[in-house]
Description:
Blueprint (H helix, E strand, L loop, with lengths): L3 E3 L6 E3 L29 H10 L1 E3 L13 E3 L2 E3 L3 E6 L13 H12 L3 E3 L4 H8 L5 E5 L5 H13 L4 E5 L12 E2 L2 E2 L5 H9 L5 E6 L2 H9 L4 E4 L12 H11 L6 E4 L6 H9 L4 E4 L4 H29 L13 E3 L1
Parallel strand pairs: 6-7, 6-15, 7-8, 8-9, 9-12, 12-13, 13-14, 14-15
Antiparallel strand pairs: 1-2, 3-16, 4-5, 10-11
Helix pairs in contact: 2-9, 8-9
The structure holds flavin mononucleotide.
Amino acid sequence: MSEHKEDAVTGASFMKELKQEKDPSSPWPGPKGMIPVTSGKADDANVHNRAYLDNILVEMRVIDAVKPDLTTEIFGKKYASPLTLAALSHLNKVLDDKSRKPMQEKAAAAKKMRVLNWIGMETDEEYAEIVAEGAETVRIIKPFADHQKILDEIKFAEDHGAVAVGIDIDHVAGTNGDYDVVDGIPLGPITEEDLRRYVNSTKLPFVAKGVLSVRDALKAWKAGCKAIVVSHHHGRIPFGLPPLKVLPDIEKALQGTNMTIFVDGSLMSGYDAYKALALGADAVLIGRGILPELLDDGEKGVEDKLQKMNEELSQLMLYTGVKDTESFDPSVLHFN
Ligand SMILES: Cc1cc2nc3c(=O)[nH]c(=O)nc-3n(C[C@H](O)[C@H](O)[C@H](O)COP(=O)(O)O)c2cc1C
């Protein structure tokens, strides 16, 4: 097993030693440039995520408190926890040991732990192999410039049992100021009308992933989306607002709409997840919080980390008198 190091600024833990590391100076074990690595500088939104999270303190409400029930309903289905496994991608390509399939291992862990799994950019063939593990899955499709490709992937996901589909609308821009290109495939802009077209093309709930303003949340709702992920996709936008900072305003703006609100962004522990849930999220996505464990120890590593995070979440719920995932109360939080 390789050692982890904790990034003091971003809170992310990363692999210290990996035989397959492509760039010795980078914490990311995959090919260079594939995933933006946290710089620790002020324009790195992950820095602000961590600072914001760590400055939220929690008061105690123990009298009459009982051990909480973590069961969470998402899109009409019951899961064991509000922690879900984030839309990761490309991981089957990053290890030297090609007999291992981290994307399948992550899906197997989700199934075993009875949590929702998200799958990001993969070919339809790879996606089909991952969902064959049997986890309940949300399929997130890139904002491809070729809109027919988006419609085809939505249909494919629907045919392969996805519980919901969506687009990571925050991945339109590349770092060169133009539309991004991923794996040689051009991405393009997404209008409210485009979103409406995708929503209407499927019977599945549609998710706009990468909402970081009340404005976009309302546009996603008007377009017919059933859910949003409040997120900046591990810091795609320079100086991005911490998702937790804008979450309460979004939650207020969407009251009465029945929209499901997910949030992600540097949630590395069950304590971080508690804060996100108390601030108005229905469920949270955990990405980099399980990434080193996944790459190190596969399915078991993810299960153990998730178990630990569930325990931390449960601990804070018990300390604050939150009996179930419907009963979070933001008034226990104090901003330092
Ligand atoms: C290796 C890796 C691959 C990712 N691929 C995708 C993707 O294909 N689609 C997507 O919507 N998000 C993708 N993400 C973003 C995550 O879903 C998530 O929004 C982001 O990492 C923030 O959560 P975190 O701080 O818990 O990691 C990826 C993240 C990582 C680390």
